Amino acid sequence: RRYDAGKDGFIDLMELKLMMEKLGAPQTHLGLKNMIKEVDEDLDSKLSFREFLLIFRKAAAGELQEDSGLHALARLSEIDVSTEGVKGAKNFFEAKAQAINEASRFEEEIRAEQEEKKKQAEELKQRKAAFKELQSTFTQ
């Protein structure tokens, strides 16, 4: 919310540019576009909250290049309890826990979708086999 200047629930290119500058890690225009492209699941050229959380999931999994803007963003977004205080740390860790829950739910959705595709492929295979068997009775 802090960096969503348009208050539309998304972080666009210019908002990401300002955020990275405020965090002390300015990026080139191309670098910003690549940052968005790496996590932009719906290809709308802006980051939703879910896509923003994906940055931290990828960082935790070691899937971001060390020199990438997303890696810098994830690293800069860590919290220092001595400066933020206990309440700030509590909010940070609650947000991280929520992000992990969102990520696991996302992974479950992907698994369920893959299982459904496998099931449909198996059913299609069985229907084709049944059709060929039926067809062979008519050709004899």
From TrEMBL:
This is EFHD2 protein. Residues 1-26, 27-62 form the EF-hand domain. CDD domains: EFh. Residues 96-134 form a coiled coil. It comes from the Eukaryota. The keyword Repeat applies. It comes from Cephalopterus ornatus (Amazonian umbrellabird). PROSITE patterns: EF_HAND_2. Gene3D superfamilies: EF-hand. One of its GO terms (molecular function) is calcium ion binding.
